[in-house]
Each structure stands twice: as C-alpha cells, then as structure tokens.
TrEMBL record:
Its main location: membrane. GO terms for cellular component: external side of plasma membrane; integrin complex. GO terms for biological process: angiogenesis; cell adhesion mediated by integrin; cell-cell adhesion; cell-matrix adhesion; integrin-mediated signaling pathway. Keywords: Glycoprotein, Integrin, Membrane. It is a single-pass type I membrane protein. It comes from Tyrannus savana. This is ITA2B protein. The keyword Acetylation does not apply.
Amino acid sequence: QGQEKLSCNPKKENGTHVVLCELGNPMKAGARITVDMELSVSGLEDMGDAITFQLQLRSKNSPSPTNASVTVTVPVEAQAEMELRGNSLPDTTVLPTSWQGVEGSRRLEDHGIKVEHVYELHNKGPSTVSGVTLRLAVPHQLGGRILLYLLELGTEGGMNCTRHPALTPHQV
C-alpha cells in the first residue's frame, strides 16, 4: 500500500557481485508486494549489447532448495555524441594559376605553399567510446595534377593512424 525504500547491501559471493535487499520482517503469509529496483552499473563499455541479472527471492525463516531464480536480460546501449572540429593554417590560401613546381627538388618551398590541417575529435558523452574510426578524404590531385602534396600524418592521445597511399610520393 505505502511506498518504502529498501535497504540493500552489495557484496561478493563466489566471485559474483550480489545485492541483498531486505523486503520486510516479519512478512505475513500470502503477502504480495511489488518491488521496483533501479540499478546503476558502471564499466559496461565492453559488455556487449545486453547484461543479465539473476533474481531470487529467499526467506530466512524457511530456506527451501526450490527457491527458483529468474533471469532478467536488459539491453545495453551506449550513447555518445561525437564532434569533429577542423582548422587550417593559414585559414585561407590563394594558389597562383601559373605556378609550376620544381621537378626533382627536395625543398618544400619548391613544391607549393605549406598548409596545415588539424582535426580534433571530441566525445561530448555521456558514455565513453572505443574503437572509433575517422576517415578523412583529402583531394590530393585535380585534373591529373598535384593539388595537395601530403607530407605528414600524425595523431595525439593514444590513437593509431593508417598511412595514406599518397603520402609524400616524391620523397620530399
């Protein structure tokens, strides 16, 4: 009839995390109760798409080997909002229409104007993320001529980067 907060205590039994909740003492024979439980579970990033709980009702007064347990499977869905920020240094570059690179030169200035692109991928949460793949398409040729000569590709913050096939083809 009335609503009461349960007293619950987490503990470990046989390597399993167990939460014991005291429902009432004494309880009259034939009593019917409804229990709503809210569990907060952390570290579910690598748990797959569901988590399973075993629920069992036991009495301290008359232990029975037939105390059946019920399996409850709850779907897990991680949510994270990703944001990609980009910057070019300088932010504007005007290329001369008649400019020609110096064939065979290893000097950077003989191949064009240096432009640096920096991209930052931010996780705005609420969940953590792993296994994120970011693919950037860079137009390095236009009409069979080099538009952008890719010199270097790098990352920060424990990420891996796959080498682009057009990265410094003339070994500048």
